[in-house]
Design goal:
- By secondary structure, this protein is mainly β.
- Helix content is 9%, strand content 38%.
- The strands form two sheets. A four-stranded antiparallel beta sheet has the order 2-1-7-3.
Length: 107
């Protein structure tokens, strides 16, 4: 059991966060993608389930479905929280353990 935290941020709009329980057993990975490049294939898929395969925070992510669909997604460099980002980004953080409700409150 694990958790994925999905963060979308934009300098003009702000930030949104969502956490979901997932089946993940591995190291914590924080990776960011350009939201337009991530949404492009998702807008055109009719599959109910999409798998995002990640190796680490600097390797490309791979989107797959149960059909003959493969999409390679290059990550963006994740800035430290001290540095403001100048472009929209979509970040994913995979954690190997479930975060309690007390520690998953908005930051």
């Amino acid at each position: 059991p694990g958790q994925v935290e999905i963060v979308a941020s934009s300098p003009e709009i702000g930030e949104a966060r969502e956490s979901l329980a997932i089946n993940y057993k591995g190291p914590t990975i924080t990776i960011a993608f350009n939201p337009e490049f991530l949404m492009a294939p998702l807008r055109n898929l009719v599959a109910d389930e999409v798998h995002l395969h990640l190796i680490d925070d600097i390797s490309p992510g791979v989107l797959r479905t149960g059909t003959n669909f493969l999409y390679v997604l290059m990550p963006m460099r994740v800035n430290s929280r001290a540095e403001p980002t100048s472009s929209p980004r979509f970040s994913i953080r995979l954690c190997a353990s479930i975060v309690s409700s007390a520690s998953s409150s908005p930051r």
